[in-house]
Protein 1
Amino acid sequence: MEIRIERAKTLKPKPDQNHLGFGKYYTDHMFEIDWDKDQGGWHDARIIPYAPLQIDPATMVLHYAQETFEGLKAYRNPQGEVQLFRPEMNARRMQNSNKRLCMPYLSEEDFVEAVSKLVEVEQDWIPTAPETSLYIRPFMFASEPGVGVHPAVSYKFIIILTPVGNYYPEGVAPVKIWIEDEYVRAVKGGTGFTKCGGNYAGSLKAQEKAEEHGYTQVLWLDGNEKKYVEEVGSMNIMFLINDTVVTAPTEGTVLPGVTRDSMLTILRDWGYNVEERKLPVTELMEAARTGALKEAWGTGTAAVISPVGELYFKGEECVINDFKTGPLTQKLYDTLTGIQWGRLPDKFGWIKVL
Ligand code: COI
């Protein structure tokens, strides 16, 4: 893919690395490419100064939500090099999201090249303070103006970058999770396995409810029976029940997380029993009540590994591991972040040094 580069005339001041928050600052440039059916597909790949988009009020994404996105990170390793973590997995997941939403998609090679080129141009924005990184947000939307429901004939694929710290205000500390028994996130045959904006819009009502009750995130039950635990709003979730790690299978309603897959690979490599199975919420709460639930943690690109300190379900609150980060959660966090920031050997071949 040929990428034209137009440099910004003035550069923004860089934010204080110790107070980055999450998604508050954007870099000087962005990647953009268009897809038009009548022009034979993808054309005009470019890195240009970061700027607002001008779109027609009839732009189809604003009405029918044909939109998908991804999230990955760039890290500065101890040798000063820039590295990405499993970017090809994000490329493949976006392809699967786009297929479900009747959208065209970039090849794995072009996706990774676009991400790599933009990060290279913006490498001075990669923060180096502990637990900080450069979050990469590729996204794509139907850009055709039109009223009438059908797959659009034109699209924009864009990548923006934001230097980030921890996703949760708690930092790497246990979060409180609300298990939702009224609203649902995904049903069989729906879009649960995709990263599309609509999934997140539909989750806000329950998130608002959870926050009103003092909980950080929602844990969704399956949308068909409201019986099995699936995923949390911003991450997948895993439970250490006695000596077995249990997590929901990715069978169409759960997002196939890159961090989720990495954790399962590491756990199996360490010899843990890992079960990807439907876990009834009643079994989970019973395990929490009796102490069989030793630890719980969320996994995600933004959230990294986030310990879960408390579960709430239908009026019952259960504290996990005295609301402390458990030893396995800590070991997983140290191992994953060690590989991502280049402090530990890349045993599984997950790192792409630019
Ligand atoms: C990510 O983990 O990268 C996500 O996109 C989750 C989002 C809630 C920030």
Protein 2
Amino acid sequence: MGNEQLEELRGQLDDVNEKLVELMNERAHLAQEIGRVKSSQGMNRFDPVRERKMLDMIQEKNQGPFETGTLQHLFKQIFKASLELQEDDHRKALLVSRKKHPEDTIVDINGTKLGGGEQHLIAGPCSVESYEQVDAVAKELKAQGLTLMRGGAYKPRTSPYDFQGLGEEGLKILKAISEKYGLSVISEIVTPGDIEKAVEYLDVIQIGARNMQNFELLKAAGSVNKPVLLKRGLSATIEEFINAAEYIHSKGNGNIILCERGIRTYEKATRNTLDISAVPILKQETHLPVFVDVTHSTGRRDLLLPTAKAALAVGADGVMTEVHPDPAVALSDSAQQMDFPQFSEFMNQLELSGLYKSKKTATK
Ligand code: PRE
Ligand code: MN
């Protein structure tokens, strides 16, 4: 008898649950719709005034047996879930999101295809110091089968008294050497007004970690027809990083390469903490090629090889590292740049690991 009554009551509860599920999803649809309207009007998704009104309504209408505080607590959870749904929808609507564009974006740099399945290396000196220095590095990279060379002309340094780079003169050196060796060159630009000029000299414009949220610079880079390598900010979340890429894409330039370069944590054993899991997350959430800068993330020459292996193993489209003819006298980052024998060993070991396929013969 008692059991029949229990079954009957549970049956009724199941019906109510079913209706609640339907109602919750009806509500979720409305919240999504509201989210879209707010997004199109540039409004904040979180609206505490609106939430307060709804909580007051509960107080006014509640006849028990639930206490008003209990219901308000439950509703607060519903608001939170609705907000998350709106944020999810927003993320999926981004131009750089995989939801919006499921296929991988392949950034073609004079025939070297980044993001197309083959993994590539970008290497070169931290700073462009002289024609002879870049010339020597370019020769070495060429011998190792690389097609992409980096080199800093504008150096945003922690101290204003440190070497600030050769500026436009550095860009000219890069251009001359790129033509001499048939290498593509990547260099950081720090001022929106220099972007137009950079287009003439460079094959890829880099936006550095310190400028990841320099929105005017991002918009300027988004307005030109030149691939952009965007580095993750020192303390930027993955979401902020993706939004920074969206700034570039929103202006029409979809040729973007993301570069994880370590984040600030309490750990002091390395210069920054390489967030290796950011690589598969960025690959899942966006359709852009993802690189890992092993030099600046670790700040340690002895960690370049293991972190490069990790990056390639975890699915990065390539690795970026620094090479200098004589790191001991380099004008910047002397502790972590590789000299030529070290670079050659680095390349050999990467190839031996089976994680990297040498392009030596392909570029002869
Ligand atoms: C909603 C969601 C989040 C806001 O903080 C306030 C309310 C809700 O779930 O009720 C919907 C909504 O976005 C809104 O009414 O503006
Ligand atoms: Mn450097």
